[in-house]
Please model this.
Amino acid sequence: MRGLRCVYPGAARPALDDVDLELPGGALAVVMGATGAGRSTLANCLTRIVPCFVPGEVTGDIRLLGEPIADRRVGELAGTIGMVFQDFEAQLFSTDVTQEMVFGLEHTGVPPGEMPARVTHALAAVGLAGFEGRDPTTLSGGEKQRLAIAGLLALRPPIMILDEPTTDLDPVGRAEVLRVLAALRAERLTLVVIEHDAQAALDADVLVLLHEGRVVACGAPRTILADVETCTAAGVRAPDVARVFAALGLRDPPLDVETAADRLRAEGVRPRPPAFLPRAATSAAPAVEVRNLGYRYPNGHRALVDVNVRIAEGEFVALVGRNGSGKTTLAKHLNGLLVPTDGHVAVMGRDIVGLPLEELAQHVGYVFQDPDHQLFASTVEEEVAFGPRNLGLPPAEIEARVDEALAAVGLDARDADPFLLDKGVRQRLAVAAVLALRPGVLVLDEPTTGLDSEEQLQMMSLLRDLHASGRTIVIITHTPWVIAEYTERVVLLADGRVRYDGAVRPFFADDDLLAAAAFRAPDVTRLGRLLGCTPLSVEELVSWVPRRTAACP
Amino acid sequence: MPLTLYVPAPTRLHRLHPVTKLAGLVAFVIAAFVVDRPLALVPLVAAVFGLIVPAGGLPNVRRLRVMFVLVFVFTVVVWTLFYERARPGVPTYDGLLYGVSTAMRLDTFLAAGILFLTITRVEEVAYALGCVHVPYKVGFTLTLSFRLVPVFFDAALAVLQAQRCRGLELARGGLVQRLRRFVPILVPVLIGALRRADRMAMALELRGFNSGRARTTYLRARPGAADAVAGVLLVATTVGYLALWASGVGRLGG
Model:
């Protein structure tokens, strides 16, 4: 790319400006940056989605394998460059895996005789050998994403772009896809991966950091990620280890936990955690009580078996487990979206069976993972007023509740069109819309998924504030640092049963439990454990390190 | 819950050439369309249901039984009461006969459709349409819309749940109010559909749709002996029913 610039019609500033990048063949490049930094635009320019699908003025020179691509159509580049999206559902079009695989081959004129071999090879490359003939809708998220990758691989493109390929996946699916990427790299494919998790960038050959459409850093990931200030300025969460080293005033942080622990030991850093760690105070009154809950879907699948959970008022609980472990099924029982087939669920001491949903909605608010599943109004204000209006409240009361809810989430653009807001803002609006019903308990399904690092922090500090104001919060999440830094209690589900229910610290100190959830403790926790303690955040670990008096010259 | 009707099974009917299956559907629809004497329709109804059983489509019929019954009852009642235009609301024998015949025909259409979808993958539908020179893009669009039904159904369910969590109660109030309550369901579903369609169009091109190169096909079915037999039977049925129609034997009243 030489002097690449892209301007969307009506935009205040170019989405990309003055981008010069050269990626050697066979390299793994990771592109990071905040929402609006231009990451997706970069990918879309490379595949010609901009300007072929999304109108935009692209200037500058892009060459793939030495060939200029200006004036080429997206379809013409199939076989040269492939691209996988975050939304894997939108990339599968067929009713069985084989048909899915041959789709691209048929459309690029590959002789039918050659197809079976290509299909077999591509499926094997993503670990889906033997899946021929399966119905794609019956696959797990990770399998669907790998199928989407295989569909492109069959075309044998030397370059492949992956736009947040693991964002919508659980830790198991994520690990599967990352393994596939490693295998593709071994086959010398040039890979461009757009990511927001620094962990995925550690092994890359090149890390490109974008900020407001410009390349602010480009080079070895180790160097860039070690620079906490630059990362933070670009809206990227620097790795835990780099943040620990920066806070302790140490230079050249290694990025893997083991080496970092050795370095810290050598530097004489010995964290001393206090003898008594503060424990979350739990009040006696239960907000939600789940007793012997069992749930069987109409198709006979037993999603929950004998679940007992008591959530006290004012708790902050993380509901974790692999996809299909029953988290969402359990969460949907808390506000009556699902009715138990066995056992009982009581909210504020009353059994939910027989309670109308609108009354339950005033006790337990439920925020869905995708804010776009509920936003429909033409203004932010209307959106928030929808719930109170459904309750038949008087206008003055509705007004007051809208004010209160918008203030709580820090939104003041009351007349803005919800559909034009950024994902992070839409997510907060969805929370406001539920808050307007004044529920004492708030259940959120993956509140940070799909947000960039700054938006994630905003969302979590919003939840922390709501919690501080007395609300009970239950979140479903796959993100270890969210659990470690914000929640007080972990409920781990495995195969529909409660596998662990207790404090966060022991959870992250138990390798068996972590394996059961396909989880990895945050790096700072792993680093701390190598040093003999279990910190839950960078700040905590740093605060445990005694101030070194008079640093050595 | 599966939303498609295709039943993967290695039956003889499944193994027929896609064009034969399509021809079967057309033949049954024509035959049922041209004849309206109930007695003449009986063999046709028997044939369609007689084929659904070995095709493994009975569960599909069971799933849609309410539709069969509703269509039948509604049609019979309406025609019985309103056949005579001069005296609406007065039941007549002619009306009853005509109602029964129309109901049988409609249920035959429905059953023939179920039979077809039970034994035919949507990709085969597109292939068959291609064989009879329907433009590829038309056939493909059809295939894709079938594929999307379950996706949108799931999205609609999620939206419905999300809005119920905000106190939306659909079954309350007068008709206008009820219709207005669908707005919060329809807007997110439609916008989601548009977004997805947009993404899908990109994904399609990324996989070579519109690549400018000549298309090849993986699915290549060769007609076999079974297709010849089926073809003869289908032609015989169609011709037979057309004869019934032309001779007037198959028609009610003059």
Remarks:
- The first strand of chain A starts at residue 2 and ends at 7.
- The first helix of chain A runs from residue 39 to 47.
- Chain A touches chain B through 68 residues (CB under 8 Å).
- Residues 287-523 of chain A form a domain with the Rossmann fold fold (CATH 3.40.50.300).
